[in-house]
Amino acid sequence: METDKIFWALIAVMAIGAFAFLAFGTLVSPIYAQSQLSATSCGGAKASQLAAPAPTQQSGALAQTGSDGAQEVALTVQGANYYPNPIRVKIGVPVRLVADMNSVTGCSRSIVIPDFGVSKTVSAGDNIIEFTPDKSGTFGFSCSMNMYRGTIVVENADGTVAANTGTAPKAVAGSCGMGSGGCGCGGARQ
Known about the structure:
6-stranded mixed β-sheet
């Protein structure tokens, strides 16, 4: 009699366990759980953030014109990418990238746009990057360690885009712009 109770109790526990696994097992995959446990890198970005799949946004976002005529874009970070991606702007018109400091953290704050001479580390008190695109084409930009990436498409006045692909962003040796070493060393979070 006692063995029958134990047997049915084990069957019930296994059935509940199987149900729970099937119902909730995909909510936290082993890979995701492991990445959450791993140490942070790149100034506070967790490995799971760096490996996250990029949201799809095929056409990009055309910059909004501010009251002073500059093209304004709210710049965020999702996964290992700057967004909107691509950013679409017009040639010869000043561009103002306004970094959202809630998502632009760690070494993603050190932004390099080689084709337009931009190299700046944004902060809470200075989160605006300004430049004027002087050539049409598709141009990559990144953090100074080339871990976070984005694309800027510069259109001609008529909306066409030159075949120019610009200079590929390269990592700047020794620092992710945080002043405490480089990515992978757990750079300081600002």
